[in-house]
Specification:
single chain, about 325 residues, alpha/beta, TIM Barrel, 8-stranded parallel beta barrel, two-stranded antiparallel ribbon, 9 helices, 14 strands, about 20% strand, globular
Length: about 325
């Protein structure tokens, strides 16, 4: 087995480009046409809100994917366990119950969770925009009694409860290293998973969320430290363009840095990771301050797949690294 590539459904949800989004069936067809191996389903409207899919819809979706030879590799929730409000935490638990049921009905055994998804506003501007995503303070979380400390513990407790439900369905949870509550990098996400302490809770580790820390040394450190926990990973389809006919990477809008995808894929290969790398386009698709249509999303996902496939091929052709004494 080796790493494979998938398409995250948010790219074609209609939130980020001019025009309507695609249904999941249309996205399965799109993934097949582009050469992806799988899709991952993000569970929100307008594309994939679980309550919009009855038993017949779910069966049809499975059959569509099977007929196309496209794996539904994961279901991705929009969870937030950090709220200080009791009712909001219970609302999230109720949502997660439906998400787990949706995944089980699709025979999907991997569900991504956020400790604290900040939310998206989809009726305030021409495209969707994110809610605030402040980074948590490392200083405050070292000491009991602060709000950030309580947020952290609420995330641990909430994910534990969902993990116990997931275990009953043989589903693994993958915690994404995404702010807020978690700081950028891998350290907080790994610590959270270790504190949750459930066999069916791992990591969705994204190099783009390392922000400015893109050195070979940091990438190696991150992947090696998380090696026993990595279940899933995303990369940004918005980070590519063509120059003189060649696909090249552009700086990430999150950090202004080039993402060290080559070293990240190299290290994943060295630890024997055989899961999925998912292409996502989840920022406004703009060019010269004008919102672009779905064709621009197509081109971005085609470029990202070409670029990442070339990296994987190059990495796997390298001589094995001798084991350290």
């Amino acid at each position: 087995m080796t790493m494979q590539f998938g398409l995250l459904s948010v790219s074609y949800s209609g939130l980020w480009h001019d025009g309507p989004g695609l249904s999941l069936e249309e996205q399965i067809e799109k993934a097949d046409e582009m050469g992806y191996d799988a899709i991952s389903i993000e569970t929100k409207r307008p594309t994939a809100f679980p309550l919009d899919f009855d038993a017949e819809d779910r069966q049809r979706l499975k059959e569509t994917a099977d007929d196309a030879g496209i794996d539904i590799c994961a279901v991705e929730s929009m969870s937030n366990f950090a709220s200080p409000y009791h009712e909001e935490r219970e609302n999230n638990l109720a949502m997660m119950h439906d998400v787990l049921e949706f995944a089980a009905d699709l025979d999907v055994d991997l569900v991504k969770v956020f400790p604290a998804w900040p939310g998206i506003k989809d009726d305030h501007a021409e495209t969707a925009i994110y809610g605030e995503m402040p980074m948590r303070s490392h200083w405050e979380t070292r000491y009991p009694g602060t709000e950030d400390y309580r947020q952290w513990n609420r995330c641990v407790e909430g994910i534990r409860e969902v993990a116990d439900w997931a275990a009953e369905r043989d589903i693994t949870l993958a915690v994404q290293n995404h702010p807020p509550v978690l700081a950028g990098g891998y350290e907080d996400a790994l610590q959270l998973v270790e504190e949750i302490d459930r066999e069916n809770v791992g990591l969705c580790l994204d190099a783009v969320l390392f922000y400015e820390r893109q050195s070979d040394e940091y990438i190696r450190e991150a992947v090696q430290a998380c090696a026993d926990h990595i279940e899933l990973s995303h990369y940004g389809a918005w980070n590519f363009t063509r120059r003189d006919g060649e696909v090249v990477q552009t700086p990430s809008p999150l950090s202004g840095e080039l993402i060290n995808n080559e070293e990240f894929v190299r290290q994943l290969d060295r630890i024997g990771y055989d899961g999925y790398l998912l292409s996502e386009y989840c920022v406004p698709c703009m060019e010269d301050h004008e919102l672009q249509g779905i064709e621009a999303i197509d081109e971005a996902n085609e470029m990202s797949l070409s670029y990442m496939e070339a990296i994987l091929e190059s990495v796997q052709s390298e001589e094995p690294v001798p084991a350290e004494d």
